[in-house]
Design brief:
- This protein is α+β, with helices and mostly antiparallel strands and 280 residues long.
- Helix content is 48%, strand content 17%.
- It has 10 helices and 8 strands.
- It has helices at residues 12-25, 33-40, 44-56, 73-85, 88-103, 144-152, 156-165, 181-194, 238-255, 261-279; strands spanning 60-62, 69-71, 106-114, 117-124, 138-140, 197-200, 207-214, 220-228.
- β1 and β2 form a beta hairpin.
- The longest helix is centred in the last third of the chain and has 19 residues, at 261-279.
Length: 280
């Protein structure tokens, strides 16, 4: 049997070992040898040999109270090394070219410099007509889509204080810039609900979408920004681009070992449910 062109060869034993680890990871109570054989359709001898090897490496452990296998402490050590080697900003920079080429937009990766301040460190251009951006350009709280994202990361009461206290200082970059505090705060709340910020001619005479990128600890590591002329990044296209950037951002966070927004919500709901049950 030949492999299709471009298909990579995978060592069956390694794939079987990986499938065992993934299956155990999905089972909170662990899985027995029999359950693994049935779920993964492995032979009893193959499953036994693989489990024995994984156990010797510390990657699985057998529950002394029963026969179930659980993930072992050796994986914690490997995971810690992996997290150190995966850099969210570097991953964001890598993704800019992919998004720019696929959606024919200028895509930027900006690095946080401090609270409410980021700087452009990567610009990827499509092959056709595009918006030009220089490296080193800085964006702050009141700079279009990026500013809305930065403000959305602040606690709600602090974001409101920032906007209202500086209402007279909000720069009117264009005649479409949101300088009314109530309108801007409403837009910031919208960013929190959809996961991306948008600017339609509010910072320059082009349109933009921005999303935050968090590392494994939940710290802001980068901001991804897609920019296009009004006929490239239309009002109708903004939600689609916003969802694309949000998906890229969440994939980066997951690759770093962090939780996606959906996983965080699930954890919060689980914690709330547990707290409610404890009060009963």
């Amino acid at each position: 049997m030949t492999r299709a062109a471009g298909e990579r060869y995978r060592v069956p034993a390694v794939m079987a070992a990986a499938s065992i680890l993934e299956a155990i990871a999905r089972a909170p109570e662990g899985l027995t040898h029999t359950e693994l054989v049935r779920e993964l359709e492995l032979s009893k001898s193959s499953a036994h040999n693989l489990l024995t090897t994984l156990e010797s490496l510390g990657w699985v452990r057998r529950d002394p109270r029963g026969r179930a296998y659980r993930l072992g402490g050796g994986l914690v050590r490997l995971g810690a090394f992996a997290v150190r080697q995966v850099d969210a900003l570097a991953l964001a920079i890598e993704r800019t070219h992919e998004v720019a080429g696929e959606h024919h937009l200028t895509v930027i990766a900006a690095q946080p410099l401090g609270r409410g301040d980021v700087e452009t460190v990567q610009v990827a251009y499509p092959d056709d007509t595009h918006v030009g951006i220089s490296l080193g350009v800085r964006y702050s709280w009141f700079d279009g889509a990026v500013g809305k994202v930065l403000l959305s990361l602040e606690p709600s009461d602090e974001a409101e204080s920032l906007v209202r206290e500086r209402a007279r200082q909000i720069p009117a970059h264009t005649d479409r810039t949101l300088t009314d505090p109530d309108a801007l705060l409403a837009d910031i709340e919208h960013v929190r609900s959809v996961g991306y910020g948008a600017s339609i001619g509010e910072y320059r005479h082009n349109n933009a979408v921005a999303v935050p990128v968090h590392d494994a600890d939940g710290t802001l590591a980068a901001v991804l920004i897609a920019i296009g002329f009004p006929d490239q990044l239309t009002r109708d296209a903004i939600p689609s681009i916003g969802h694309t950037l949000r998906d890229v951002s969440e994939a980066i966070t997951a690759e770093c070992g962090g939780r996606t927004a959906e996983q965080q919500l699930q954890a919060q709901n689980a914690a709330a449910t547990a707290a409610e049950e404890a009060r009963r």
